[in-house]
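Give me the fold.
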Amino acid sequence: MKAFAVMTGILVVLGAAAEGTKLPFDTYSGYFVSNKFEPDAATSFVVITDQAKFDQVLGVAMVMRDKSHRLPKDAFKSNLVLTAIKRGNALWEYKVEGVTVEQGVVQLRYAVTSRATPETTFACPLIVSIPRDDYKAVVFIEDGKRVKTVKVGG
């Protein structure tokens, strides 16, 4: 019985390792998607490594009494930004379930919900920062399904 308990413990540890190491992350709001960035795409997935690229994809949406959580000015010194964008006749909301890394591949897991808007089109971004590191790729996993893999730096 003791050997079984030890083996079970090893399996649990190995199972946890197979899922990858959890990464700290933060989410941001108060941004709009540039109408010049992939305007005809239904979805876009981007790994942003610097402020210039961020500014090509997203802009600050200024409204009165806005309390949106925005990136700090020096965010790209120590972070990367992962962005998923959905466009069309719906308002999309995202809920990040977790971010992990294994062998240089980041997995961003999130859930989406939508509300149809037949008269209006929207471009709704998910904006997530993670610590900067030497990553190979980012896998976007939406509602449990792999939807896109983006090479980092490519």
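The chain is about 20% helix and 50% strand.
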